[in-house]
Design a protein that fits this description.
Blueprint: H1 2-11, H2 14-19, H3 29-52, H4 56-86
Length: 87
Amino acid sequence: MLSKVKRRHAEGDVADDHILRARTGEWSKHKMLLRFLTRTTFISITTLLGAMFPFFGDILELGAALIVFPLNFGLVHHMYLKVVFLC
């Protein structure tokens, strides 16, 4: 049993059996669907990152603006109200 596990691990298909549920045949519907979804997700994410890369500075500026906005407008009002009602 152990030699079989070692051999399968060396071949690299241990994860295949666990993740893909070891259905019959390499071309089973379940395996094909999982491969399709995995590859489609990977291609979509890498395409999105590649399209956003030229605008990386703009994306960082947008994130910074969303973080700083509450500090500039919301926090000032809260501090003012604290000072007014404590005095």
